[in-house]
Specification:
It is built from 24 helices and two strands. The longest helix is centred in the N-terminal third of the chain and has 35 residues.
C-alpha cells in the first residue's frame, strides 16, 4: 500500500495531472449548479476530450474531478432557489432552502461545503484502506439483498412525515411507486401505462419530477405570496449576514458527518445504489436518531438535516469507485459512463487493474484527496458572491427560476413532452403542498420503485418463488431492519403519549 501511495502521489503531483484535478473540479462545480445537466451529461460530452489527452491517468483524473465536483456544487441551487442541481442533492433542499428563507443562505452554503469536503475526504481514506476487501463484500449482494435494501429505503419514509402526516407520507409513497411503473417493465419488454404516448415509453424523467415537485411550486408560491421572499420580521432574506458556523453548530454536525461518511461510502460501494439513495437514507437515519425537539426542526431548517445528505452523497460518490476500479462493475449511471471512458482509453478495470496499471488506480485515489481540498478552497471564498443571487429582485428571480427549471427539464431528456409533464406535475405538486402533503416520500417511491421491482423479479426467477427471503440470511436481516425502522418511531411515539398521560394523571 505504501508503494502504491508513493506511485499515486508522484503521478498526481505532476503539473499536467494537477491541472486536470483543478479543471475537473471547476467544470463539475459549475455544471452541478445548473439544474438538469448533472455529471452524467457533462462526462458523456467530455469523453472525446479525455480520449484525446492520451494519458489514461490524466483523463480519468479529469473525469473523476468533474464527477465529484458536480456532486459538490449541486447543492447550491438546491439551497438558494429550491431547484436541485443533481438528483443526489434533492434531500439537501429539505433543510437547505428553509435556512435560506430564514436569512441563513451563507451559513447553509458553508455547512454544505464543509460536509461535502468531509464526506469526500473520509470516503477517499476508506477507499484507500478497504477497496479490495469491500469489493469482495459487494459481490455477496445478489438481487434478493438489493430488493431488501430497497425495502429498507422505503421504510425510511417515516423520517419525512411530520406530526400526524404518516398517512399522507404513505399515500405519497404509493403514488411515487405507481409513477415508477410507467414505461417498459423488467419482465416483459412492453410499455405500461403510457396511454399510447411514445415519449413515455422510457418512463418519467427523475430531473423532471424533482424540478416539478420543488422548483416550479416555489416559483408559483413566489407569485401567489408577495411576502414569501421576506422573513417574519419583514427583513429581506437576500442579505448574506452569516458565513461562519459557531462552535456549538460544529459540535452538532460533527457526529453526523462521521456517521454519514461511513454509511454513505458503504452504500456507494454497492453497485446500483448510488449517491441519491445514500442522501435520502442519510437524512432519514439522522432524523430517526435525533431527539424529539430536534426532529421537529427537520424540514424547517435543521443544520443536521442539511449536513447529513451532503456528507452521504459525497462519500457515496467516492465509494462508487470501489466496484468500478476493483471489479469493473459500475456502481451508478455516472460510473457506467466512466467505465466506457476507461474502455475507450484501452484500460480494463477489474481485479488486475491494481497490478497491471497501479499508477492509474492509485492516482485516482490520491487525486480525490487533492480534489476535495481544491473544491473546498474554490467554494468557501465564493460563498458570499454565490449567495448574492438572492439579491436579485423578485421580478427577475421568478423568471430566473422558471428558466432554469424549463431548461433543466429539456436538457435532461431532450424531449419537449417533458415540458408538458413538468407543468402538469408542478401544478399538482403545488396543490399537494397547499394541502400539506410531503413531497419527499413521492420521490423516494419513484426512485426506489423500479429498483425494487427489478430486483424482486430477478430474485423470484432465480429462486422460483419467494423462498429467497428465508434462504438468504442477509436478505432476512435487512427485511427485519426495515420492519424495525417502521415500528420503532410508532413505538417511541406511543411511549411518549403514555408517559405524558402518566404525568398529567399525577398532576
Amino acid at each position: 500500500m505504501l508503494e502504491g501511495l508513493l506511485i499515486g502521489l508522484s503521478t498526481t503531483l505532476s503539473f499536467k495531472n494537477l491541472a486536470m484535478v483543478v479543471g475537473g473540479c471547476l467544470i463539475g462545480t459549475f455544471i452541478g449548479m445548473v439544474p438538469g445537466l448533472g455529471p452524467m451529461s457533462i462526462i458523456a460530452i467530455m469523453i472525446p476530450i479525455a480520449v484525446t489527452i492520451g494519458d489514461p491517468s490524466a483523463a480519468l483524473i479529469l473525469l473523476a474531478g468533474v464527477y465529484y465536483g458536480a456532486i459538490f456544487g449541486g447543492s447550491t441551487s438546491s439551497i438558494l432557489i429550491n431547484a436541485p442541481g443533481v438528483a443526489s442533492t434533492v434531500a439537501t433542499s429539505f433543510d437547505g432552502y428553509p435556512l435560506t428563507r430564514q436569512g441563513k443562505a451563507g451559513k447553509a452554503l458553508t455547512i454544505a461545503a464543509i460536509s461535502s469536503f468531509s464526506g469526500g475526504t473520509i470516503g477517499a481514506i476508506l477507499l484507500l484502506a478497504f477497496a479490495p476487501a469491500l469489493a469482495t463484500v459487494a459481490l455477496l449482494f445478489h438481487s434478493s439483498e438489493y430488493f431488501a435494501l430497497m425495502v429498507v429505503g422505503l421504510s425510511a419514509i417515516a423520517a419525512f412525515a411530520g406530526t400526524g402526516q404518516v398517512f399522507k407520507a404513505l399515500l405519497m409513497t404509493f403514488l411515487g411507486l405507481a409513477m415508477g411503473t410507467v414505461g417498459e417493465g423488467v419482465l416483459f419488454n412492453m410499455p405500461r401505462f403510457t396511454a399510447g404516448i411514445l415519449d413515455l415509453q422510457g418512463g418519467f424523467g427523475f430531473i423532471t419530477l424533482a424540478l416539478a415537485m420543488f422548483a416550479l411550486p416555489e416559483a408559483i408560491y413566489l407569485i401567489l405570496d408577495p411576502n414569501r421572499s421576506r422573513q417574519a420580521d419583514g427583513s429581506s432574506n437576500s442579505e448574506v449576514k452569516e458565513l461562519r458556523i459557531t462552535k456549538s453548530e460544529a459540535r452538532a454536525i460533527a457526529p453526523v458527518i462521521g456517521r454519514q461518511s461511513i454509511q454513505g461510502f458503504l452504500i456507494g460501494v454497492l453497485p446500483g445504489a448510488g449517491a441519491t439513495i445514500a442522501s435520502f437514507l442519510g437524512y432519514a437515519v439522522e432524523r430517526n436518531l435525533a431527539g424529539k425537539e430536534e426532529q421537529e426542526k427537520f424540514g424547517k431548517g435543521s443544520i443536521k438535516g442539511l449536513s447529513a445528505p451532503e456528507t452521504a452523497n459525497n462519500a457515496a460518490c467516492t465509494g462508487s469507485f470501489v466496484p468500478l476500479l476493483t471489479l469493473g462493475i459500475p456502481g451508478s449511471g455516472t460510473t457506467a459512463i466512466l467505465l466506457g471512458a476507461l474502455i475507450a482509453l484501452n484500460v480494463s478495470p477489474g481485479p488486475r487493474l491494481m497490478v497491471d496499471n497501479p499508477q492509474i488506480f492509485w492516482a485516482v485515489i490520491m487525486s480525490m484527496y487533492l480534489g476535495n481540498l481544491v473544491l473546498l478552497i474554490l467554494n468557501l471564498p465564493l460563498i458570499p458572491y454565490i449567495a448574492k443571487v438572492l439579491a436579485v429582485p423578485r421580478n427577475f428571480l421568478i423568471p430566473f427560476i422558471l428558466f432554469f427549471t424549463l431548461m433543466g427539464t429539456y436538457i435532461g431528456q431532450n424531449n419537449a413532452t417533458e415540458l408538458l409533464i413538468l407543468v402538469g406535475f408542478g401544478v399538482a405538486a403545488t396543490i399537494f403542498r397547499f394541502a400539506d402533503y410531503p413531497m419527499a416520500p413521492l420521490l423516494i417511491g419513484f426512485i426506489l420503485g423500479p429498483l425494487l421491482e427489478n430486483n424482486f423479479s430477478r430474485a423470484m426467477q432465480l429462486y422460483d418463488g419467494a423462498g429467497f427471503i428465508w434462504e438468504r440470511p442477509m436478505t432476512l436481516a435487512l427485511l427485519v431492519l426495515a420492519a424495525l425502522l417502521v415500528l420503532l418511531p410508532s413505538y417511541r411515539s406511543r411511549r411518549a403519549q403514555i408517559r405524558a398521560r402518566g404525568v398529567a394523571d399525577a398532576d
